[in-house]
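Hey Z.,

So I finally got round to the acetyl coenzyme *A thing we talked about over coffee. Here's the setup:
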Amino acid sequence: MTGKATIIGTGSYLPRHILTNQELEKIVDTSDDWINTRTGIKTRRIAGAGEETSIMASQAAYKAMEMAGVTALELDMIIVGTITPEMVMPSCACLVQKEIGAENAFAFDVSAACSGFVYALEIADRYLKNAPDMKILVIGAETLSARVDWQDRNTCVLFGDGAGACVVTGSKAEDGLLASQLYSDGRLWQLLSLDAVPRRYCPVVDYGTVPERNSFCDGSAFNMVGKDVFKYAVREMGDAVENLLNREGITVNDINLMIPHQANIRILKSLAERVNLSFKKVYTTIQKYGNSSAASLPIALDEANREGRLQKGNLLLFSVFGGGFTWGVVLWRW
Ligand code: ACO
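And the result:
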């Protein structure tokens, strides 16, 4: 013993195609005003040809490795949080390994829905406690648009695609992962679910300018009880934040920035209110990118990093919630 995870490089990739609320008005019975008021989302990114999950993940990884000054051959491990890999086997992480040429790494996916990136980060931290010299690529990447029912206005307005990545290694200094707590409750699985579907029945579609409904996805798109998801997300993330801060003897005023999973601006405002954190200290990208599940937090982290919002010594809070249910919170010294 003992190291702990510290981030030495971040990167992200967003698909080129921007889908606006106005374009969605032409597909389903909705309005810019409804979407904006209920979710805070104005646009989202939709992956097209050449922007499969592993490709976006690899593009994000290149940027993170460049910032970290780490080559692909120096990587020991690759973990991808995703619920939308191209294939069940091989994993998205193995496809990333092939794509970037990380021949010395071992690679696997983590399936924890919107919590996937934080679950992966926590696994990396456990390895680094015993082997602090390891260089680990931790990624969240999703192509949710391929699994959305584009006639279901309850869900199709919410989701977007993208990838975010971090290069993580061990630190014995102040910086890095200070504390974390993960949770899941499989009893509540029916409130948010997505069937497993063979890829040939659910191909990634090149949407062009406007998504067309993928009829092959009938019955295999998102099932969601939105109001319950909202309620549980605020309550469980709120309790998780309070429990972790109490356990670590830290007050909410000590937090410099919360970088949460980007699900809905109202969830984030309710969460901030519940834990008495000023909303000015909550970093959001939901307006631009919608909900990109496991990718949303590492994309936000990369943007905050590149904008100069993260100063050395800052105390960060990562907070996530997703299907399963899964959720978790991480306290991080930048
Ligand atoms: N446009 C217009 N009307 C719509 C739309 C739409 N896109 N979607 C639903 N409606 C209608 C419904 O049909 C319903 O109409 P009805 O009352 O005539 O039956 C009405 O709007 C529903 O209104 P509310 O129930 O008041 O909507 P609510 O305020 O609960 O907002 C929402 C719905 C946005 C889905 C909200 O419940 C939510 O965000 N929940 C969390 C879901 C979530 O974040 N899921 C992502 C995955 S989980 C995660 O990432 C944490």
